[in-house]
Amino acid sequence: MALTITKRLREGIHVLELKGRLVAGEEVGTFRAAIEEASTEPQPKIIACLRDVDYVDSTGLGAMVMVSTQLKRSGGALRLMNVNRRNIELLVL
Questions:
Q1: Are 67 and 78 in contact (CB under 8 A)?
Q2: pLDDT score recorded for residue 88
Q3: I need a surface site. Which of 5, 15, 41, 64 has the fewest CB within 10 A?
Q4: Secondary structure of the chain in the HEC alphabet?
């Protein structure tokens, strides 16, 4: 299933609702492009809702870590919301 991202802005915070799989290939590219688009302002705040993400591979995890680091360096932040149990276990590892 291809990754789709619905974007909205709420009280100055970009909310990205992801649906599908965050895996190597086009999906990671789509995720990074959505983050770049949302981080055009200084100190961007972004929430990634992972409620409908059923699988994240190591490349997807690496992409999340990389964009989080980039946002921190620019004074912004990335937060994850509604992470399922399997993805929490991956993040803990």
A1: yes
A2: 83
A3: 41
A4: CCCEEEEEEECCEEEEEEEEEECCCHHHHHHHHHHHHHCCCCCCEEEEEEEEEEEECHHHHHHHHHHHHHHHHCCCEEEEECCCHHHHHHHHC
- Residue 71, amino acid: L
Residues near 31 by beta carbon (within 8 Å), at least 6 away in sequence = 3, 5, 18, 22, 60, 63, 64, 67
pTM beyond cutoff 0.70? yes
Q: Which residue has the tokens 């990754």?
A: 3
Q: Residue 40's closest CA among 12, 69, 10?
A: 12
- Name the residue type at position 22: L
Q: Look at residues 57, 63, 67 and name the one whose alpha carbon lies nearest to residue 87.
A: 57
